[in-house]
């Protein structure tokens, strides 16, 4: 959450022709956690503005024949992922605690993130949700967890959560998920440049930023 100031300085320097990159993620996505926590300073250094785009992976996984996370479906892959994520977090100085259950239900957090974006605190809210989930092991479908985050951001939890349950926000999240599918997204995190170039995975963040900066 300390990177919020970086985004404020970045926003103050934005121009209409500044390079941009869309950062698509599901809050239940493990590798989206380190990506979300490190993207701000990297984007500032690259001269790229990044737009946080929450969506739901569930419909995409179902289309691929999965009714669960592939990290649960394929046990060996899951064991590797958790150790890999632990190493990544240690190298970045990020707290890590495996959430239980996994994957977390991300619907409430995703809807609230859209409201938080309208309130001007969307990126900080998203980072706080990831830290609560993967840094503290909290359940992000628990309204009290989301309320606590909103209070720390000096927002009215009741008002924002009420709007998060509105048809407007439900439809927006549904539309964003459908947009992710149309863009060819099959996992998270995914970064998409304005020219449509797609980069999948936390380990492709630097490449995605470089591409966006070069193509601006």
N-to-C span: 28 Å
What is the CATH homology-level superfamily?
Glutaredoxin
What's the architecture, going by CATH? 3-Layer(aba) Sandwich
Structural domain count: 1
Biggest sheet architecture: 4 strands, mixed
**Share of helical residues:** 55-70%
The tally of helices reads: 11
Question: What's the total count of β strands?
Answer: 4
SSE blueprint:
Blueprint: H1 4-13, E1 19-25, H2 32-46, E2 48-54, H3 58-63, H4 70-73, H5 75-92, H6 107-118, H7 122-135, H8 143-152, H9 157-164, H10 167-182, E3 190-192, E4 198-200, H11 205-215
Parallel strand pairs: 1-2
Antiparallel strand pairs: 1-3, 3-4
Structure description:
- This protein has one domain (20-215): Glutaredoxin (3-Layer(aba) Sandwich), CATH 3.40.30.
- The chain is built from 11 helices and 4 strands.
- It has a 4-stranded mixed sheet, sandwiched between helices.
- By secondary structure, the chain is of the alpha+beta class.
Note the main attributes of this structure.
alpha+beta, 57% helix, 216 residues, 11 helices, Glutaredoxin, 4 strands
Summarize the structure.
With 216 residues, the protein is α+β, with helices and mostly antiparallel strands. 57% of the residues lie in helices and 9% in strands. Strands 2-1-3-4 form a four-stranded mixed β-sheet, with helices on both faces.
């Amino acid at each position: 959450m300390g990177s919020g100031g970086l985004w404020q300085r970045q926003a103050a320097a934005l121009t209409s022709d500044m390079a941009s990159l869309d950062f698509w993620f599901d809050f239940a996505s493990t590798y989206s956690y380190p990506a979300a926590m490190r993207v701000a300073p990297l984007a500032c250094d690259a001269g790229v503005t990044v737009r946080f785009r929450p969506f739901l992976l569930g419909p995409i996984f179902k289309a691929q024949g999965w009714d669960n996370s592939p990290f649960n479906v394929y046990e060996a892959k899951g064991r590797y992922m958790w150790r890999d994520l632990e190493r990544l977090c240690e190298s970045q100085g990020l707290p890590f605690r495996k959430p239980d259950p996994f994957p977390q239900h991300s619907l409430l957090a995703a809807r609230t993130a859209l409201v938080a974006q309208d309130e001007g605190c969307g990126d900080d809210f998203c980072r706080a949700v990831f830290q609560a989930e993967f840094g503290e092991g909290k359940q992000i479908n628990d309204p009290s967890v989301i309320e606590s985050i909103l209070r720390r951001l000096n927002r009215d939890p009741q008002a924002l959560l009420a709007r998060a349950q509105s048809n407007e926000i439900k439809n927006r999240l549904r539309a964003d998920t459908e947009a992710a599918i149309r863009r060819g997204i099959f996992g998270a995190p995914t970064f998409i440049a304005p020219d449509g170039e797609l980069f999948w995975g936390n380990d492709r963040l630097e490449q995605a930023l470089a591409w966006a900066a070069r193509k601006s």
